Amino acid sequence: MRNKISLGAFLVIAFILIGGMFYSLPYYVTKPGMAKELEPIIKVENGYREKGSFMLTTVRMGRANIYSYLEAKVKKYEEIYPVDEILGKKETEEEYNAQQLYFMAASKLNAIDVAYRKAGLPVHYKYKGIYVVSVVPGMPADGRLKAGDRIFKVDGHQFSNSEQFIDYVGKKKSGDQVSLTYLRNKKTNSQKITIQPFKGQPQKVGIGISLADDKEIVVDPKVTVKTDEIGGPSAGLMFSLEIYNQLTKEDITKGYHIAGTGTIDTDGTVGPIGGIEQKINAADKAGAEIFFAPNEKGAKDSNYRAAVKTAKDIGTKMKIVPVDSFDDAVRYLQKLPQK
């Protein structure tokens, strides 16, 4: 009898413990991710090789369960965020992930643009259509289109930018239909969707999507950037440095292992990112010797200041370098002694 009770108690405890792994809490947990060398994933056709390396840094994020929540409570460089601080109002995880992949795609385009222009090479763009960033709940596109869909025809028309798409649809009347041709998971689909007014804005009509231009950059020599499912815009600076280094004869790595983070605009401006403390940890564990951090023009709460504080706290020998632009990073590297 006692053995039966013991077995039953064991099974109940095991069920609770296992269940805790799969029960999601209304939080997300972030922790240091990886520092990944860029040369294997970025290839400029007939590009120059480098003796050192450039690395992107990442933050790991996932929905919290009981164990990851408790772990984050006690570990210094793991953070807990309520769901509504990560997802926008009525935003789904699918939409969030699609947005992050779009931000990564845009970051790659900007990085290529900056690197090629800095190398004195021409840059052109080919417009491909509309990228659906999110779908408005309760509007006609809800349940018909998804974040990540790429619309390339409207009523058989192809446009040269998203403004023309917005203008075309905006001239329709409530009750009119538009026929959309779009790409989802590499398959072409078509939908007829009825136009209706936006809630609270009866004078404004549409199908209920937020969108961005879907475009392809055209450069010579060709370049490929394979990032798989890594999302977000924070690798822009490091992408641009790796591409530029493969385009030019001088190896600006000088043999050093160089990590960093920061968004990149087409004018070369480096912008701030989230999770700088966790990225410092990731870079240190990967053996980086130099880390570029967004300086934000010397702001008191800049990424750079947070990075310096974290570097001191973990006792790394990694040099933290403030940058406001792509040119700042290049000038710093050009002045480095050869390793």
TrEMBL record:
The active site is at 234, 279. Pfam families: PDZ_2 (PF13180). Residues 229-336 form the Lon proteolytic domain. Belongs to the peptidase S16 family. Gene3D superfamilies: 2.30.42.10, 3.30.230.10. The lineage of its organism: Bacteria, Bacillati, Bacillota, Bacilli, Bacillales. It is an enzyme of class 3 (hydrolase). It comes from Neobacillus ginsengisoli. Keywords: Hydrolase, Membrane, Protease, Serine protease, Transmembrane, Transmembrane helix. PANTHER family: ATP DEPENDENT LON PROTEASE FAMILY MEMBER (PTHR10046). It catalyses: Hydrolysis of proteins in presence of ATP. The chain crosses the membrane at residues 7-29. Its EC number is 3.4.21.53. Residues 120-186 form the PDZ domain. This is endopeptidase La.
